[in-house]
Structure formats: structure tokens, C-alpha cells
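Person: I keep going back and forth on a fold encoding question. Show me how you would write down a chain together with its backbone fold. Please set it down just below, with no commentary around it:
Helper:
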Amino acid sequence: MPLGVFDSGIGGLTVVRALRSAFPRRDILYVGDTARVPYGNKSAETVTTYSREIIHFLKKKGADRIVVACNTASALAVGKLRESAAVPLHGMIESGVEAVLAVGGDGPVGVIGTAATVASGAYQAALSHVRPEWKILAQPTPLLAALVEESWLEGEVTEKVVRHYLEPMMREKIRVLVLACTHYPLLKGVFRKVLGSEVALVDSSEACAKSLESTETKVLEKGELKIYLSDEPGPFFGRVENFLGSGSVGSIQRIVLESVG
């Protein structure tokens, strides 16, 4: 049975990339809600409604577990939908927190993501719950996803934007930076240049794949990836490779998501 994955757009393909590396023989169904992207500026009720529709679609396609590869949906919707989903739901927040704990140390922790993810307080609450003594610095960084969408993955402009966002955290001498958006792993080179090697980067995509290792069963056949987008695929073809990296895609097609009561 396939593993379902979804995000508001194609940024969640960084999670698919990590999952394919960890589970190369697992069939994966990916839904990118490109007709309604972004989720970061929408209400919790709207994000929950959209997530419910996508979960319904993936279950109809046979997914036996679903990864919510969207930090905004993980923060705003997963808790509400876990019971009704009737299949295991894996959000990004729990695995991200586990990865921070694995780094160790006592210094401040930085979190960057969409305005909705940061405003939800989900990462801050989860980190404070396990380590109440930690100082958590959370910063919305809305321009970074746009830079990735335009393939501005390096260069002076991107570096200046990143530095502007991270300067307050650098003054506080953070020891870990949580990349709480699926677009941000593509900017790791810039983060390293700005922060230096002493600050650990927690990639929520890699953390999610690692957290699934103990629950996944071995599959003998080579896995296939099918991508479903809620808008015309054409404008996204060129960007899929940036997010996904090397590896074949079984198909990319447009879908219409059904309203779920």
C-alpha cells in the first residue's frame, strides 16, 4: 500500500526526497494543493478543511499512512484530524522536536517558518514542553519561500534577506535553527554561510523521514512516485526537479479535490 504525502504546494517534495532516500521501495502518492497555495496566510479552519479533503483523496487512492509535509497544516490541522483520519497521520512538528533533542546542548533554539506556523506557537509549545528551561526564538520568514520558488537559492540578494531575518537570533547566539518550512532545506548553503558551522540546522524533511524508520515495513519491489496537483501541472514542471532532486516520477497529473463534510 502506498505512503501518502501532501503539502500546500510542491515544497513538500523535499520531504518526498528524504522519504525516497530512506524507503526507496515504498510507493508514494504526493498531493500538492497548488490551486490554493499558500496555506501560511489562511485561517486554521480553512487549512483544516483543505487538509481533510486531501486526506480523503489519499485514502481513496489506498494510502495506509499519511505524512503532512506542510508545517502550517501540521501546526493548525493535524491535531484536529488525527482521530477522524482513520490512518496514521505524521506531522512535521514532533519529528522536528525529536531532531532538536538529538542535537543536545543548552543554548537558545531558533525556529523559522511561515507567519501561520510561527503564530500558531506549535513548535514553541512542543519544545518548551520537553525543555521548559530553553529559550525559544521564533521568527516568520515569508520572503524565503518566494526566493526558493524563483530558484534564487544563493547569491547576494538571498544572503542579505537571510541575514536580515536571522540577525536577532545570531545576537542571541542560537545553537540550533529549525527549518520549519519545506522550502528552506534548499537554502542550507546560505544558512551555513550566514550562521557558520557552529549552529546546527534541523531539516524538518530529513527529521520526518528518520522518525518513520521504526514504523515502516520492508517492501521488496522498487517504489513508484505519483504526483497529483490541484492546478495545471505545466507551470510547476521546471520546479519539481529543484525540490525532488534526481529520481524518476511515475506521473504528474491534475486532480479535483472533493469537498468533505
Remarks:
- Residues 44-60 form the longest helix (17 residues).
- The mean pLDDT is 90.
